[in-house]
Design brief:
Elements lengths: L3 H73 L3 H11 L5 H17 L6 E7 L5 E5 L25 E2 L4 E2 L6 E10 L5 E10 L1 H4 L13 E5 L2 E6 L2 E4 L5 E4 L11 E7 L2 E11 L2 E7 L8 H45 L14 H39 L4 H17 L5 H17 L4 E3 H19 L3 E7 L8 E3 L3 H13 L5 E10 L3 E8 L6 H7 L16 H12 L4 E7 L3 E9 L4
């Protein structure tokens, strides 16, 4: 017989020996690799923190630039302001009132823009004699006139520019970033230029309070121009710098770029993040920031080494007690689940990784019980949906409309058509009252649909028509839940064609994928929006004025899914004012 206690003692001794050797190795290797390791992690942490800060600031700057771009676009094309500008610039009869209307519209666009405080001036001109300006600080600027408007850099008849440089405002002491767009008229012809000059504070305001370590700088790249950011000033670099590929591996985001930059013989790391295309925000990092204090680090390493050796024995004892017992309890719990005992045991949910395993085992037991309950609930729901059609009562509104139609025909006509209409109605009522089958051949379902449509056709006269296209006669023997097609035709008539006044319905039966049948009912009525389609397939309709009450498109969809499976059911495609196409997918089954 094997001595279990001796075996456990041997394992424990091995753990003690391994832990002691491991602790000694760690203490020795830690002293050797510590300096480089701490430098690496400090560099990694600093770069990641810098990347996060740049990313956060860049997103805020980009939002303001988007707002300013939208302000310029409102004068450029496809807006009420652009239409007023066209009338003022192009019309030979344009008056001062037209110019005032343009100015008022531009001021309104300026007022509602969330980033309007960064607009130094917004100018539109036809490069002839007409121009209009919205100025955010008019008192600090020389008045704009026909003689000095040409002094603005980039304001020419063919200019296009998007945040590519910083210029000096020729009429004031401020600097700005120009954004220049064409003004389009009829047939996309250029009739002028919109010139937006944004204050550099759109960049510097987001950097107030930005934690910049000693020896670091913030750089801004606009197009091919590079600038240094100091406080609220953005100025060209005092000396050019060379860029070299970064030769270390650091984990960064897909948009972040690392590089070595060398300026006046000094090499630093550059962390860059794009604000948007053509605009990059960068921060330089001095390598001295990553060097740990050598003396303090050596003392720390000696203390850590002693502590590791002292604690290795205690860790060994702790591990033997915190692993063996929990593992044994988990094994017994798994055995109980295998025997069919799915009760939850909270005693195995410790505050440790093994406790996570215990919680996972309890979740597994709970999920199994939930799945069993769900299967029972699904079966009950399936039975309810199968008999809902049989329990539905004939809508009095439908009978009222039908009998009114019969009365109208009897009065206006010489009883022509009354026999057909009455026969169709009696067949429908007979099927509702006496036929209790859950599934019927598609041929019979199409016949009931024809009876229903005949009644509606006499009601609406010649304003509605329906045609059928059967790909193969053999498909008509496939089984389908009773009264599946009638709600679809009813929806096409009442919600598609009736509001339009006239229309056609096309019913197509075709094979799909070799083993399925696809039935399509399409009308050329008023159509539905995506929101209406989503509402139809996500919530039950409150009522109906057709043949059945409380039997809508959602009910049809649920009955098909519960009868044949999740991959089958109803799908709807529609375009407002054009068409609505409802498709049923069901398997090809015979009785």
């Amino acid at each position: 017989m094997i001595d279990t206690r001796q075996r456990k003692a041997t394992i424990k001794s091995r753990i003690i020996i391994i832990m002691t050797v491991f602790a000694l190795l760690i203490a020795g290797m830690l002293s050797f690799f510590s300096y480089e390791l701490i430098s690496y992690f400090q560099r990694k942490t600093t770069i990641q923190a810098t990347e996060f800060n740049l990313q956060l600031v860049s997103h805020i700057i980009d939002q303001d630039l988007n707002n300013l771009s939208a302000l310029a676009m409102s004068s450029s094309t496809n807006s009420p302001t652009n239409q007023l500008i066209q009338d003022y610039f192009v019309s030979p009869d344009a008056s001062a009132k037209d110019g005032l209307n343009v100015f008022s519209s531009m001021q309104e666009d300026f007022r509602v823009n969330r980033s309007n405080s960064y607009v130094r001036r917004l100018i539109i001109t036809d490069h002839q004699a007409k121009f209009i300006q919205v100025d955010n600080s008019e008192s600090a600027s020389v008045p704009l006139n026909i003689h000095n408007i040409s002094q603005f850099p980039g304001l020419s008849a063919d200019a296009i520019e998007a945040w590519e440089r910083i210029i000096q405002d020729p009429l004031s002491r401020s600097s700005g970033i120009p954004y220049v767009l064409p003004i389009y008229g009829d047939r996309a012809a250029r009739i002028g230029t919109v010139y937006l000059l944004a204050n550099t504070s759109v960049i510097t305001d987001k950097l107030k309070g930005y934690g910049l370590p000693e020896g670091s700088e913030l750089l801004l790249t606009l197009g091919s121009h590079k600038y240094l950011i100091e406080g609220d000033k953005v100025q060209p670099l005092s000396a050019p710098y060379a860029i070299h590929a970064y030769d270390k591996k650091e984990a960064t985001g897909a948009l972040t770029q690392l590089a070595w930059i060398e300026q006046e013989g000094e090499r630093r790391i550059s962390v860059s993040y794009p604000v948007r295309e053509g605009i990059v925000l960068s921060q330089t990092l001095d390598e001295k920031q990553f060097a740990p204090q050598l003396n303090a680090w050596l003392l720390l390493m000696i203390g850590v080494s002693v502590l590791v050796i002292a604690l290795s024995g205690f860790i060994t004892l702790y591990l033997t007690r915190t692993i063996s017992l929990p593992v044994e309890k988990l094994r017994k719990r798994i055995d109980k689940i295998a025997q069919g005992n799915f009760l939850i045991d909270r005693n195995i949910e410790w505050n440790s990784e093994l406790g996570d395993v215990g919680r996972g085992i309890n979740r597994l037991s709970h999920d199994i019980l939930t799945l069993m309950d769900s299967r029972v609930a699904d079966e009950k729901q399936k039975q309810e949906l199968e008999y809902r059609m049989l329990q539905s009562q004939i809508s009095p509104h439908f009978l009222y409309n039908t009998l009114n139609s019969i009365k109208w025909m009897a009065t206006i006509q010489n009883a022509t058509g009354i026999a057909e209409m009455t026969t169709s109605l009696s067949r429908l009522l007979r099927s509702i009252a006496k036929d209790h089958r859950k599934l019927v051949p598609l041929r019979e379902e199409l016949s009931l649909m024809d009876d229903y449509f005949l009644i509606q056709k006499y009601r609406y006269g010649s304003t509605i028509t329906m045609e059928q296209n059967i790909e193969e006669e053999a498909l008509l023997s496939g089984l389908i839940p009773r009264f599946t097609l009638q709600p679809l035709v009813e929806n096409a008539i009442f919600h598609g064609i009736e509001p339009k006044g006239r229309g056609e319905i096309a019913v197509t039966v075709a094979q799909s994928g070799g083993y399925d049948i696809r039935i399509t009912i399409e009308d050329n009525g008023i159509g539905m929006s995506e929101e209406q389609i989503a509402a139809i397939l996500s919530q039950r309709e409150p009522g109906s004025k057709g043949l059945f009450e409380n039997v809508g498109l959602l009910s049809v969809h649920e009955r098909l899914r519960l009868t044949f499976g999740e991959r089958y059911g109803l799908s709807i495609e529609s375009e407002l004012g054009q068409y609505t196409r409802m498709s049923l997918l069901l398997p090809y089954r015979k009785s």
